[in-house]
Automatic annotation (TrEMBL):
NCBIfam families: butyr_acet_CoA (TIGR03948). It holds the Pfam family AcetylCoA_hyd_C. One of its GO terms (molecular function) is acetate CoA-transferase activity. Transmembrane segments: none annotated. It comes from Oscillibacter hominis. Its EC number is 2.8.3.-. Pathway: Lipid metabolism; butanoate metabolism. This is Butyryl-CoA:acetate CoA-transferase. Residues 3-191 form the Acetyl-CoA hydrolase/transferase N-terminal domain. It catalyses: butanoate + acetyl-CoA = butanoyl-CoA + acetate. It is an enzyme of class 2 (transferase). CoA binds at G220, I221, G222, G223, M224, V320, G343. Coenzyme A-transferase that converts butyryl-CoA to butyrate.
């Protein structure tokens, strides 16, 4: 049987395909831009027939149709590996819950630990001449999803970029049970944010001056990492490499500015390696069939052993707040969930193990409380009740605000408190000193 014949035999409608889902099933929606659309809509139409259907996904760029049905939480539960703003709202609606992960381990969770999916349904690029459906910019953990799911349904989208890979970037038609042709919706857009603020620029400048020629970059999501990327694109840096969890628009700008060639990478020389990507259409156009790019599972991209092999590895990530012990929270505001652990700790650890590597956690020193209009310090005596420790105090390398950067490695508690307070907003320093003293992590000889 030819691949074309097998395709025709497995081709079905979305309404027919979702009949395989039963009450109590675990259903996997894949990841980010690969979440299904017509299959999701078809499953939503069956809501009244179903109860306790548990769905896995993450980084929603649009609200799933199953979350829009009346009384959605009575029929579906959304379990997210990493939350977007859409999913944060779904928590408040009682339909969504976060699954704490170390992202590099996610493929192994599927293969060894979690309840296997009854059904997996997700978007893919059109089948190629060899019978493969590319996952697009979502290699992440998708091969493990396919290997462990009882039924695999692919939704073909002509607009899904075909992303060149190193491994585990596609599924063969022989491992697919049903094929549905979607509506060829445009790719989900993840906006790059507004123009950088003065604070973003100040933080970015402090980081960029630490980056040598030939460095290998990882950028997290958010305004500050994007600003760092823009500043790198305008700098005199050269021979840069990329090895990152998430490929974002900033990398496209840096590459088109001629700063990236990967010539000094110890592994995957000449290629930009990433676990998944999301951004604007500019990014998807750049990823499509670009042999310079290497799509790979997060068990490779985020593995500290891979990261540590790359000399001069530079990791740049955000934080929600930090305490005077050096604990970093990048996931919640108290018990209110914001994002997820992702691979931040993996890159913090891997960058420090890299020869010449540096890990930067950056944040603005303050934010304005939307309810009270008051200025609030992101540097706190202790993390607030319920806040999650994303990076433990022993693992933080550089901490950066608009007031400076400090290296926390090897510092005692009073030295840490002194260093961290030195980059707090001046308005809060005296108060933080008093609180540090009350916690016995401040020396009376310290001067500010």
């Amino acid at each position: 049987m030819s691949y074309a014949e097998e395709y025709a035999r497995k081709l079905t409608t979305a309404d027919q395909a979702v009949q395989v889902v039963k009450s109590g099933d675990w259903v996997d929606y894949g990841w980010c831009t690969g979440h299904p659309r017509v299959l999701d809509q078809a499953l939503a139409k069956r809501a009244e027939e179903l109860t306790d259907v548990k769905v896995r996904g993450g980084i929603c760029l649009w609200k799933p149709a199953i979350a829009e049905v009346p009384g959605a939480a009575e029929h579906f539960t959304w379990n997210s590996w990493h939350m977007s703003g859409i999913e944060r709202k779904m928590i408040a609606e009682g339909i969504a819950f976060y699954a704490p992960i170390r992202y590099s381990e996610l493929p192994r969770y599927y293969r060894e630990h979690i309840v296997h999916d009854d059904v997996a349904m997700f978007q893919v690029a059109p089948m190629d001449a060899h019978g493969y459906f590319n996952f697009g910019p979502n290699a992440s953990h998708m091969k493990a999803v396919c290997e462990t799911s009882k039924v695999v349904i692919v939704e073909v989208n002509q607009n899904m970029p075909r992303c060149c890979g190193g491994m585990e970037e596609c599924v063969h038609i022989s491992d697919v049970d049903m094929i549905v042709e979607g509506n060829n919706d445009p790719m989900g857009i993840l906006p790059g944010g507004g123009a950088p603020t003065e604070v973003d620029a100040a933080v970015a400048k402090l980081i960029v001056e630490e980056i040598p020629n030939g460095a290998c970059l990882q950028l997290g999501i958010g305004g500050m990492p994007n600003t760092v990327g823009s500043m790198i694109a305008e700098s005199d840096l050269k021979d840069l490499g990329v090895h990152t969890e998430m490929y974002v628009d900033a990398f496209v700008d840096i590459a088109k500015a001629g700063k990236i060639n990967g010539s000094r990478k110890n592994i995957d020389r000449g290629r930009q390696t990433y676990g998944f990507g999301a951004g604007t259409q500019k990014l998807y156009d750049y990823l499509h069939e670009n042999p310079e790019l290497m799509s790979a599972p997060v068990s490779y991209t985020n593995d500290i052993r891979s990261i540590s092999e790359l000399d001069n590895f530079i990791s740049i990530n955000n934080a929600v707040d930090v305490d005077l012990f050096g604990q970093v929270n990048a996931e919640s505001a108290g018990v209110k969930h914001i994002s997820g652990a992702g691979g931040q700790l993996d890159f913090v650890l891997g960058a420090y193990l890299s020869k010449g590597g540096k890990s930067f956690i950056c944040c603005s020193s303050t934010f304005t409380d939307k309810k009270t209009g008051k200025l609030v310090s992101r540097i706190r005596p202790t993390l607030s009740t319920g806040s999650v420790v994303t990076d433990t105090r022993t693992n933080v390398h550089y901490l950066v605000t608009e007031y400076g950067k400090v290296c926390l490695k090897g510092l005692s508690t009073w030295e840490r408190a002194e260093a961290i307070i030195s980059i707090a907003h001046p308005e809060f320093r005296d108060e933080l000193i008093a609180q540090a003293g009350a916690m016995h992590i401040w020396r009376a000889s310290n001067k500010r």
